[in-house]
Amino acid sequence: MNRIKKIFRRFDDLPARKKMQLVTAMTLTFCLMISIPSFAWFNEQKKAAEMFKIEYPNALYVNAAHREDRVFFDLGAINVNANVTDEFGNDIYYSKSTNQPNYHRDDQDQIITNEDGSPKYVTEPELSYTKKIDKKQYVFSVSGSGTRSFTLQLAHTTNNQFTYKVYDATQYRYNKGTTGVDEAAAVPSGANDEDIVKYNLNANSHTENKLVVSGDEYNDPTLPSTLYYVKGSDIEMEAKNKKEVAMEGASYSEVLGKTLNDESKEKYYTETYAEYTDVHKNAVPIYWQKNVNLRSDEIDENNRTFCKYYILEVTWNTDQQASIINKETDMVYLSVDRGNG
Amino acid sequence: MSERTVSENNKMWEAAEKIAEQVVAEKKAESEEERRKQKKRAIKLVLMMILIALIMIFASIAWFAMNKAVTADTMAIEANGSSFDIATKKEKVSYKDRLLEVDSEYNEGTKHTYNNEDGGESDYYIPTTSKLILRCDANSKGEGDKDILPGGYGELDLYMIAKKAGTLNARINVKVTGFTALEFPVVDEETGEQKTDAQGNKLYVTELKKTSELTTEKVRGSQLEGKDLNVYKQAEKYLCGHILFFKDEGDTSSGTPEENRYYYKTPAAFNTADMSWTLEFGKENAAENTAYKVPVRWMWTNTLGQMALPNNADDKRKGYPVVEDGSADHDTVVKYLKDNKQNIFKPYTEAGSTITVDNEMIDNPTDGDNFRKLSDGYNYADFDIGTCVNYFMIEVSVEKK
Question: How many CB atoms are closer than 10 A to CB B31?
Fold first, then answer.
């Protein structure tokens, strides 16, 4: 209160002219203070806004090995009567005693080779035997960005008695035993030879997928012309069109044998064919699915891209197949679906 | 003690009386002066009170004016301007918190009942200040907090309310602003390490910054560290370049043959300088307290072919064209592409050389090589938008003409 009194006293002490000036100045200031916001409003501009979130580009691709164009994921023809061959295309002879490739060796125990560098085998039937192939392996990749999960889908008809399985795969730049290279870039020495799939890179094969995945760039000049993929564990896809209750926990062969029963009327059959029952049972595809949740270390933290490799393994029973004369064609579909992540 | 005469005594009394009178008179004068002073003070006080009252009145008028609750017959406001208000009608608001984070002056508005343009009445939300958060458009992919991708489109849920009968003309300015969500790691104070969730994913807190105003200082500690901020700033320009605004709806009805369908008519005018769009809104004979829809339609065109190709003879186009083939609108869109190509197409490297879109390519989009280059440039720009810009705001300013 004293302060206010002081101000009033000081005001009282001022000469009349000064008092008038002060009052006028103050009044004008107040008027300005009031009129500025009012005038801004009278200008009649009003704003409205809406906020949107942009979805991170969550592309998903299924490609051949090393994210090459799909055309290079070539299943080709499968000759179930063919023998197991080496990388030069020659039949491999296995030793009857060791079950290992039976190479011709010289005095120094070195493998004797042909002119083209391929190894010579001991071919005498009493010492060696050849094996019929019982599987083929194909590498494919699933890559994308901005997603934490996806669903891998496999569908195939069952004209041939083939078993389809999908395995995780790891990509390496060098075969096992390659010396003078970064150890981590070569196939581990403990890897089983049968689990190593060789893939020769193709020229101009990256027109579909231009994702940049760190550590796995395709314009890397140091990239060798051949890459090696090592089969990991079975990803254990789930058959979606198995009979609901009876087939719970059924094995692959059970699914193959039973789901195509017209009477079962399981969900996917009915969705696809409705009441139509005259479908050849081997033409009804089996649908397999696997939800893949990516681990943090599988996603490039910077641009949120990822690339996973898989091996599709087609196997068959060699004894059974040898007795089949008719050639059949099967259709195999691979697709990925964006998860909710 | 000497004796005094009676007269002497009388004289003394008289003198004493005089003195007493004098004292009384002086006192009287003093108190009169006091009273005058008091009067003066009272007058001053009253004057001050009047002044304060005046200020209060002025202030409250201003306040009333700011508050749209004032009735139309109060003071000079009606004459001076509150002849319209803006409004929004639908229920859902998307990303309200994010919008308030970047501009806290926005508000959801208050509910009022107005007449509909086509009869009846409805509840509308009008702003409590002059900034209103628009409700979600049912047609837009933005509804239900869904995220926008190339191909996203919508119509703003914006109305103008005529406060008095007469002509309602307005200039609508629309601007897109991009925001980048900076992710700062959530650090455990005890261990100093980044916290993770149950699945082992690292935890971050996000904070929105205008993409155009990103600085290295702001991005410290986030995933942007060490990145080229110009890529981000250019990505926001691509966003502004890729979202086009239109006034009228096209024809996608089922009765129209596929090849004749198109999305929009009447593109808004683009102001290259600030990358904003202008539309004119006009309503003659607007009725009092009636809400009129302000048509503002937007589209983030999915493929370039929908804009640049003159027709779909080569079957290169995916989806319907944005505007009608062969129309003046198509020429407008092509001109827009040419005028703003640096903010629509991203230069990219192909077989060792840089491909930059030029007018010749835009003029001859049916040429296979050109089409591929245009599409790639457009799609690369889209990819940059998606990776650098996380949110965008469509801001509309409505100005009475």
Answer: 10
Residue A51 belongs to a domain? no
Asked if the structure places residue A55 within a domain, the reply is no
Nearest CB to A54 within list B58, B94, B392: B392
Same domain, A78 and A100: no
Phi, psi for residue B279 in degrees, rounded to 5: -125, 150
- Residue B152, chain A, CB below 8 Å: the answer is yes
Instruction: Name the minimum distance, in Å, from the CA of A307 to any CA of chain B.
Output: 18
**Cβ–Cβ of A48/B396 closer than 8 Å?**
yes
- Enumerate the residues of chain A whose CB falls inside 8 A of the CB of residue B382: 57
Residues A87 and A211 in one domain: no
Q: Are residues A124 and A171 in the same domain?
A: no
Q: Do B58 and A51 touch (CB under 8 A)?
A: no
pLDDT in tens, B67-92: 444 444 434 333 344 678 999 998 88
Question: Using N-to-C axis directions, what is the helix angle for B6-66 and A16-42, rounded to 10°?
Answer: 20
**B77 token code pair:** 């406001």
Contacts of B395 in chain A (CB under 8 A): 47-49
What mean pLDDT, rounded, does chain A reach?
A: 80
pLDDT at B103: 94
Q: Does the CB of B21 have a partner CB in chain A at under 8 Å? A: no
Q: Do A320 and A201 belong together in one domain?
A: yes
- Count how many domains chain A has: 3
| Alpha carbon of B216: minimum distance to chain A alpha carbons (Å) | 16
Please indicate, yes or no, if residue A183 is contained in any of the structural domains: yes
Contact A232, A169 (CB under 8 A): yes
* Containing structural domain, residue A33: 2-42
Q: Is the ipTM of this complex over 0.95?
A: no
* Residue A246 and residue A283 share a domain: yes
Rounded to 10 degrees, the C-alpha dihedral B225/B226/B229/B231 comes to: -120
**CB of B195 within 8 A of CB of B186?**
yes
| Residue A138 sits in the same domain as residue A260 | yes
A189-193, A299-303, B161-165, B210-214: range with lowest mean pLDDT: A299-303
Q: How far is B310 from chain A (nearest CA, A)?
A: 26
Are A78 and A91 within one domain? no
Map out the domains of chain B as residue ranges.
9-66, 82-400
Q: Assess contact for B138 and B123: CB atoms under 8 A.
A: no
Least confident of A39-48, B112-121, B379-388: A39-48
What is the Cβ-side half-sphere exposure of residue B90, based on CA atoms within 13 angstroms? 19
Q: Which of A210, A212, A170, A207 is nearest to A304 (CA)?
A: A212
What residues of B are in contact with residue A209 (Cβ under 8 Å)?
none
Judge: B391–A51 Cβ closer than 8 Å, yes or no: yes
* A17 and A165 belong to one structural domain: no
CA distance A168 to chain B (A): 21
Q: What is the pTM of this model?
A: 0.59
Contact at CB, A295 and B383, closer than 8 angstroms: no
Q: Do B383 and A57 touch (CB under 8 A)?
A: yes
* Nearest-neighbour CA in chain B from A265: distance (Å): 36
C-beta atoms of A48 and B86 within 8 A: yes
Query: Does the pLDDT of residue B152 top 70, yes or no?
Result: yes
| DSSP for residue A65 | G
